[in-house]
Design goal:
Layout (H helix, E strand, L loop, with lengths): L1 H61 L11 H6 L22 E6 L7 E9 L1 H11 L5 E4 L2 E4 L8 H7 L6 E8 L2
Helix pairs in contact: 1-3
Length: 181
């Protein structure tokens, strides 16, 4: 009789302990899930930034002996293997890792067709902020949704304009402008 009474008391204590363990494991699993989602978003913008730097470098290399960049379009960039293979969706179209459209065209920076722009669509707020800050040093000018956040040739970023412009969730368009040299 004494043994069965002890087992009942111990069984209740065991149930409470297991309940606590399951609660802790559930909380940790939820935290890991949200952490992984944030890490994935950060990784996506990092991949886009790395591939964009490669595009900028490749354009400068391919066009280094040209008088201008007037011939630069998505079509010529795809045929010259400037745009990464996994972004190419057609003979003249490309999409980044977010599914956003990538556009590469010549730009008038100081003279006519002496620079180029690389534009991405569909950045969420964090991706927009990370990409702009990551591409800052390599860009002559940066616009987010038509608002200039780095002025032509500038050495600083307009933080107020950047935070306001990158505020759209999932629909930001970022355009970086680069010189030929």
């Amino acid at each position: 009789m004494k043994n069965s009474l002890q087992r009942k008391k111990q069984g209740g204590w065991l149930d409470i302990s297991l309940g606590t363990v399951f609660t802790v494991v559930g909380i940790m699993s939820a935290a890991a899930l949200f952490g992984a989602a944030a890490l994935y978003s950060s990784a996506d913008s990092s991949v886009v930034e790395t591939k964009s730097r490669s595009i900028v470098s490749d354009v400068k290399s391919v066009y280094r002996n040209s008088t201008d960049l007037s011939a630069l379009t998505n079509t010529t960039a795809i045929s010259a293997k400037i745009i990464p293979k996994d972004w190419i969706t057609g003979t003249s179209t490309a999409q980044n890792n977010n599914g956003g459209i990538v556009t590469l065209v010549s730009e008038d920076v100081v003279g006519t067709d002496d620079g180029f722009s690389l534009q991405h669509t569909l950045f969420d707020e964090d991706e927009c902020l990370n990409y702009v800050n990551g591409m800052f040093a390599d860009s002559y000018q940066i616009d987010v949704d038509g608002t200039t956040v780095k002025t032509a040739g500038g050495s600083t970023i307009n933080a107020t304009a950047l935070s306001t412009s990158c505020g759209d969730s999932g629909s930001n368009t970022v355009k970086t402008v680069h010189t030929k040299s």
